[in-house]
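Running log. JK asked me to keep both predictions on one page so they can be read side by side. First protein, sequence followed by its tokens:
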Amino acid sequence: MSRPLSTLAWQVAIVAVLLALWQWAWSLKPYAPWAVPDLFDPYFVSRPSEIFEQFLRLSCLQPKPGEWAMPGGTAFSACTARYENNLWFATFVTLRNTFFGFLTGVTSGVVLGLLLGRSPRLAEIASPFVTAVNSIPRIALAPIIILAFGIGDASKIATSWIVVVFLVFFNTFEGARSVDPDYVNASRLLGASEWQITRTVIIPSTMAWVFASLTPAVSFALIGVIVGEFIGAEFGIGRLIIESEARGEAAGMMVAVFVLMIVGIVLSAGIQRMQSYLLRWQPRHQGR
């Protein structure tokens, strides 16, 4: 237990030092300008104390200075009704669109990867088309998607999907092609059908490849939604960032950035836990 506790202590100490430098370093700028980079200018990155205060306001936990509101209370309800895109609802909207974009992107990427990975002829026919579409920067398609689907949730899900699908597809495709032919031949020798081979040999063997793409895929799904919200949205964390930028409020933007960071960490941890469970038969996932 000493090693995990030591690691945690170092992590906490590093965070504490970084927050202290962030909070007070700019105050030393007049005395030692050579030692304090312009990055610490509060106009650009605010200060941790101001970010925390802005978090309380955006989350309706402190609607007015000195006035605290508990979730479910009258003041809290009035604040959330007055500010429709409050931090709680904005996070919910972004998470919902990220979930659907991630789910559709992973599902279609796995299906296409297995289909082309199991059929060399189909892979040969589709290769130039896949290469052509994959060469387009996906984010460049976001304005077209907004134009086609509007500023509602559908455009955010579509943007998230198009960012995720190719990432999962290529991993699944390579995984399906890398299955040991001896396993496939042995299954055929035992009388297994193509569907049985796919279900019992190809898919389990490809799972490690698929999960290798899921951790970055969930981050890319979140990125796709945020980009869509930057371009046009009624609600969401991306909309909060744009509104704060328009008002010149660095603290508001940093609150949204920290929320996105926490959301990304939670989602990645969930994917890793699911990976450890589904791939528990592998030695490196045993005992986790």
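And the second, directly underneath as requested:
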Amino acid sequence: MAEMRYMQAVTQALRDSMTADQTVVVMGEDVAAAGGSFKATRGLLGEFGPQRVLDTPISESTIANAAVGAAMCGLKPVVEIMFMDFITLAMDALVNQAAKARFMFGGRSNVPMVLRTPHGGGLNAGPQHSQCLEAWFAHVPGLKVVCPATPQDAYSLLRAAIDDPDPVVFIENKALYGSKGEVDTTLAGEIGRARIARSGRDLSIVTYGATLYAALAAADTLAREGIECEVIDLRSLQPWDEAAVFASVARTHRVVVAHEAVRSFGCGAEIAARIAEDAFDELDAPVVRVGAPFMPSPYAPSLEKAYIVDAAAIIAAARKTLA
């Protein structure tokens, strides 16, 4: 295994997929010579040429629609949207075309495309460059949604997403691009499979993306008080690993669901509702949700720090459900 930064793991996954399958192409704004807005595609143009690494117009709608067409005609496009905020301009292609093609054509056509996009705050990029919109896409039948937190999962799940026969929205947190970890390029990823990031007996913390690290920090603090938290890294939001979460609830009987996205109507609400419906008998306390307040992400560093879910917020939620 080699140590890689998260961003390098994404690049290596793209490189290995393009080497293994000649139908894999990369598309997006400045993804060729410039290497993408966060340099995740750096070097690919020189290795694979301009027919497989394509700069596009500054039009997210054009990028996504072209990818849908290319996917339906035999290619496996991996498109980059610079910031998840800009995915609003690609909604028709994703929600009305990519997600529904298999159903509209009676299973005779599918859309094997991946849309990569970074979400989240921590860089003081303001309310139009920091949003976490994953709940929008997890709500759409026909789309898969992945949000890896570690370099290993960034590599393995991107390989899995590219190999998937249906459209995948692959979400990367900007604040994680510089994080490091060991990556085994022989390890296969599986969309829809969570992992236990920390074992525990007293409380389950269900999370994903960058909030995983806040959850682990909260668990470390609570462990010093004798409270052992089990931290579940979902990795995949659609489908999500219901079996793993329910099994954890059966062990701990208390749950906190935490994510960086706005708390209202977020992925955590769906997970909390499903636990209440299908694992109610295992609960010793109501499920507690943690998320961002219902407002745009602030630009000022001091306000953004208060806005983003941190370990203290998760600890407060844990104490509430343990009371």
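Observation for JK regarding the second prediction: The longest strand covers residues 255-262.
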